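Notes from the 1:1 (GR / supervisor)

We went over the backlog. Supervisor wanted to see one worked example end to end before approving the batch request, so GR pasted a single chain during the call. The sequence is below; no edits were made to it. Supervisor asked that the structure be written out right there so they could see what the output format looks like.
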Amino acid sequence: MVDSLRIWRRMAMPDPVRVHRFRSLPEQGPKVLFFSGGSALNKISRVLKEYTHHSIHLVTPFDSGGSSARLRAEFDIPAVGDLRSRLMALADETVMGQPEVYELFTHRLSQEEAVSVLKSQLQQLVVGEHPLIERIPNPMKALIQTQLAVTQSRIHDDFDLRGASIGNLIMAGGYLNNQQQLDPIVFLFSRLIRALGEVKTTIDASLHLGVELENGDVVLGQHRITGKETQRLPSPIKRMWLNKGLRYIRPTNCHIAEDRKDAIEGADLICYPPGSFYSSLLANLIPEGVGRAICHNPNPKVYLPNLGVDPEQQGLPIMERIERLIAVVLKDTVLEDVAPAEKETDSAVLSALDYVLMDSDYDYGDLDEARLRSLNIQVIKTPLITRKVNKYDERLVAQALLSLA
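Structure output shown during the call:
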C-alpha cells in the first residue's frame, strides 16, 4: 500500500489556468500557509482572499512595542496586534461581510484626547452607546460588549488608552475571559468579521524574543531588535531564542499545538514571506515542532525575500539568509525518528525549502547557484514589482504563489 505519491507537472509562471480557476472558485482555493508577523503581508493577504478562502496565517505573538506592549505589560498576554491586523486584512469586504464590525475593530482611540475623555469613550462602548457600536446588531453587539467590559474592569486607573486599538482591547478581554487562551477569541473574532482565511499565533504563550549579537551583546524584546522603534542594533544578530520576560535572560520554548502541526503538514504551499527577517519570519520557526512539521509536508516551500532595507538583516546577504532559514527549520527535526529506508527514498522528509521566488529584474545580491543546486533549491524569477514605487505588486505575488500551489 502506498501512503503518498509525488506528482510532477509542467508549470507556467504565472499559470493563467490555475489563477483563473482559483479566482472563479475561491471557496475551493488552496491552503497557502504563511509564517509572518507585522503588517508586511497584509496587502498581499487582501488580494489573496480573492483567489482562496483557505489561506493559513501563523503570526508571531512576541511583539513588545506599540499599543500591544501596554496590554502585554498590563495583563501578561501574548501580543494581539498582529492577529487583529491580519484578521482585518482577511475580512469579507463584500456585501456578505460585516462593515460595522470591521470599522469598530480597526478604530483607534485618539492620541491627543484627555485620559478622562478616553475612559468615557470606552465606557460608552461597554454600555453600547458609542456610535461605532450602536449600529452593530445583537447578538454580535452583546458579545463585543462582554469582552470590552472584561478589559475595562481589569485595567488599572493609570492605564494609557491613548492610541489604543479597540480591536486589541476586545481581544485582550476575550483572552482574559477564556482562561488565558487566545484561540477562542480569535475564533469568535474570525466569525464576527467573516474572515476569508485562518489566522492563529504560532504558539499561545506570552513569551518574548532574545538575541545575541556578533559583538557579544544580548538584547531582549522585539521592539529593541527591529531597529524601527529604537536605534538599529550595533552589531549583526548571531542567534535568537524565546525568552521569559524582558528583564532577565531566561531562554525557554514551547511545543506547537496539534492543530498548528496539522495545518503546517497539510498545507498545499508553505511560504516564508517578506517581513522583518528575525522578529517576524525566523521567530515563527523557533517553537518546537514547527520545523519537523514543515519537513514532513511534501508540498512546495517557497521563500520570498525582502526588498529594500531591513534593519535586522545588516551584514546578511541573500545566500546567508537562505542558509539561516534552512538551519532554523532543520534544527527542530529529529532525523533519527525517520526510518533509514525513508531517509533514502523520501527527500520531502528533509525539505525545508524548495524555491526562492524573485522579481526578474531586482538585484537581491549574489546567488551561489552551485550551493543552491546542492540544497535542491530552484530560483524562480518572474515580474513581481511595481516599478514606480519599487515594491512588491500584491496581485503579481499572489498569482505567482498560487501558480506553485
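Supervisor's comment: Confidence is low (pLDDT under 50) at residues 335-348.
Batch request approved.
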